Amino acid sequence: MNDEPLVISSVEGPIAILTLNRPQVLNALSPALIDDLIRHLEMYDVDDSIRAIIITGAGRAFAAGADIKAMANATPIEMLTSGMIARWARIAAIRKPMIAAVNGYALGGGCELAMMCDIILASETAQFGQPEINIGIIPGAGGTQRLTRALGPYRAMEMVLTGATISAQEASAHGLVNRVCPPETLLDEARRVAQTIAAKSPLAVQLVKEAVRTAAETTVREGLAIELRNFYLLFASEDQKEGMRAFIEKRAPNFSGR
Ligand code: CAA
User: Fold this and answer.
1) Ligand 1 mean position, distance from CA 37 (Å)
2) Cβ distance 52 to 18 under 8 Å?
3) Under DSSP, is residue 57 helix (H, G, I), strand (E, B) or coil?
């Protein structure tokens, strides 16, 4: 029995860092690991002291996908009733900003997990792919939808049909990745972005994330309605008054999250 935590959690001021920790199997996303990840994410989502969450992987992978050994003999009914993959939707429902620091392989469910994050930073050694077709299945945790939105239909289609992986540089060139960093500075870059976000009004951060997510997941009409609702809503906050007053008084704002 291995006593290592499946997810290593550390808090640095307003930032939580979650490290997927099954390096011996390239952080294959077993149901137990996903449950632990969800538990941490939902805990930090309601913790006012945490303003941004970084997800990364131990060893040479971010995550090489859902755990194939945990699914190999499953029936469709077991897949359905266990909620093994369906429960990943709780990761996409986190309201705090999430930054994926992709340190190596992000394949299958690993790529899908990265795409549930709001910002994707990649090490020069990272590789992205949806290779499910190689094992006789298709992506099941958002890959067909989010990869298509990120890369466009033709690049996404080629990846899911051939199972080919792309490098961090290619992923960046085509819009899947925000930035490529040397491996040794990846986490520091993630910390820097997280700190920048952590200094903003947490209300504005939450509401703008919701609005941009709506753009990525629904229609422009629906997205515009959410954007305007959230824009109006922020005028009920002390942070809006403080932010605008600080601008006019030429000083840094002091956001309270109210
Ligand atoms: N599930 C379970 N175990 C995995 C795994 C996975 N997704 N990926 C890697 N491992 C295990 C390997 O079985 C191996 O374990 P053993 O040492 O016990 O044999 C260990 O991790 C190291 O892997 P390799 O020896 O294969 O390492 P490599 O460097 O030769 O190859 C790799 C690396 C190309 C990433 C290869 O491991 C690989 O192809 N992995 C599977 C990728 C994949 O198909 N992912 C999709 C999974 S399905 C999915 O994610 C569905 C969904 O949409 C939710």
Assistant:
1) 19
2) no
3) strand
